[in-house]
Amino acid sequence: MKNRYGLLGKNISYSFSKGYFTEKFKLLGLHDHSYENFDIKTIEEFPSVLQESNLKGLNVTIPYKESILSYLSEIDSDAKQIGAVNTIKFTENGLKGFNTDAYGFQKSLEPFLKAYHKKALILGTGGASKAIRFVLNNLGLETQYVSRNKQKDTLTYNQLDDSVLNEFTVIINCTPLGTFPDIDKKPDIPYEYLTNRHFLFDLVYNPSKTTFLKLGQEKDASICNGLKMLELQADRAWEIWNS
């Protein structure tokens, strides 16, 4: 293939990207384009991927969105601010990193935001959560990370109570909890305190309605999964590769 693209990650056979781009290339009649998974056990294996011929661009997923930074020649200003990269463009001057998660998340989120959504809980502290915080802060929301382990400036799940949930009415799940096949798993928040003023966003898209979202819906909260975000970030990556 003359134009090869792919996804860099670990244990990514389930990934959305390969099917999405393969279908996209077919619809666009791009028969000399391919998209494949580059499944590596550690980031130190990344240079071996660069030996592949005709690579034009890569997406990056967990757990390498942050560790990939040291391998890049240039980083887009937003991605630099976020501290995570999910899109790499191969240029004459080397590898340039971008973050299209932020774009995809913002466009997915905006239709659901209400005037009273002032504060957001971000569940999880991995690479994706950094793009989420970047967007929420840019939109004027106060944010608070929630993690299983006590860290600086981070709440733990057992600190979440009715007063916290009364204040933080936007809750974003950036953990993989609830992803198929472990669909019964969910973030350990006190769901009994959710109301119709809450908005729950899950970056997980398989299943389309996770237990986290179902329990929110049962309390009349607004809900959204991560599929639209994924499609939008993928389309934005495609624009970057072709610009």
TrEMBL record:
Keywords: Amino-acid biosynthesis, Aromatic amino acid biosynthesis, Oxidoreductase. It holds the Pfam family Shikimate_dh_N. One of its GO terms (molecular function) is shikimate 3-dehydrogenase (NADP+) activity. InterPro entries: Aminoacid_DH-like_N_sf (IPR046346), NAD(P)-bd_dom_sf (IPR036291), Shikimate_DH-bd_N (IPR013708), Shikimate_DH_fam (IPR022893). Coiled coil: none annotated. One of its GO terms (biological process) is chorismate biosynthetic process. SUPFAM superfamilies: Aminoacid dehydrogenase-like, N-terminal domain, NAD(P)-binding Rossmann-fold domains. Pathway: Metabolic intermediate biosynthesis; chorismate biosynthesis; chorismate from D-erythrose 4-phosphate and phosphoenolpyruvate: step 4/7. This is Shikimate dehydrogenase.
